[in-house]
Please model this.
Amino acid sequence: MPQYKVAIVGAGPAGYFAAQALQNLQTDELKFSIDMIERLPTPWGLVRSGVAPDHPKIKTVAKVFEKIATSDGFSLYGNVELGTDISLDVLKAKYDAVVIATGSATGKKLGILGEELPGSISAAEFVPWYNGHPDFANHEPNLDCDTAVVIGAGNVAMDVARMLALEPSELDATDTATHALEALRNSKIRKVVISARRGPEHAAFTSPELRDLPKLEYTNVVMSASDVSAALERAGAEPEKEVRNNLEAMRLISELEQGKHARTMEFQFLCTPKEFRGNGKVEEVLFNTSAGEEKVIKCGLVITAIGYVAEPLAGISYEKGKVLNAEGRVGENLYVVGWAKRGPSGVIGTNKSDAADVMNLLVADMKEPKPSVDLISLITTNKVISQSHWESINAAEIAAGEPHGKPRIKAVSREELLRLGGL
Ligand code: NAP
Model:
């Protein structure tokens, strides 16, 4: 019976769904042994370090990941970095197939003047900071100002704005990183402006996220009724379903009673950022409006949430921030899934069908299986997090959270994570 060996690089949703697709394709005649390699000591990718802490329901997909991880033939190799602890060439030589599932982790740049000033950061730094990603724990976003501007009209911009505009006690029962919770408690920010370059009818928010906003208990959510009615007019009589749902959700927001709370989240449309200005740090953002005028917002923090590009890996070609690929095929026995393949779009579940399509191609390409491989003997680090090490970390974090009514308290530094794993 052929048993094929597949290495999946990246333990985020796309990686797990690729593993699941392979597991589902198994028959009595066809078996896979799957080795998942992850550079962090923790798996789950964006489910751990991307999804907003106040959206715990979205994180329940981790249960699916753990079922995949504890199925026969699956092994986790955490704290192992491709290019450092093992090379792509070795993986390609030893495995029947290698699947790149490394996502897109770098924030896109606006490319405007002042973008590098202190006080200007990308959501690609801010989000992993509040989620306790080890590489971002030492960031210190400037929360010592009254107003923050978030550039972009997608769900990441919305997450970032909400995290800044929530009453911090609302985050007590979440798994927000301890360092971020403390900083947010001391935050002086009371107004957060989400700024879109196009109109409400073109916003990339999804309607469930918009419909949640009126439920915020301690934050005014402000959207101009005239912005929404002009968008309804521009959208015409038969807008697409998503646009119709979004505009309906926005109409409800625009009708909310205002001014009750100390914290405000305000939407601005049809304003293109032109320059971040200030004396050694961000003090204001200059916009061009659709009416051909200039508009200035005074602020001490500006966060760009305008999309992501993939971080290049040695030996792989990239185009427009994605791995160069044809429907997921990259080269001889090399494949790509998820955001690294198609760019940063879609919700977590989108990766399921996407990965399944690529795994069908992978199976169709299979030749004679290669001899079995002992990955551990090929890895240069001896601090490898296995599934059982990870289960120890997971259990310790959950136990630490329990007395505080939190789903978990995340360990943040690599050293602490390895210690909890027993290494
Ligand atoms: P996104 O949905 O693609 O939104 C990016 C936003 O940035 C768009 O509004 C875009 O405007 C704007 N933008 C791009 N370039 C710009 C520029 N140069 N100047 C000004 N604005 C610019 O990306 P995302 O918010 O990063 O989200 C990534 C994916 O994750 C999305 O599919 C999202 O739905 C998903 N996600 C889902 C959830 C959830 O389900 N709760 C949470 C977070 C993320 P234009 O349209 O004008 O280009």
Remarks:
- The chain is about 30% helix and 20% strand.
- The CA atoms of residues 201 and 231 lie 6 Å apart.
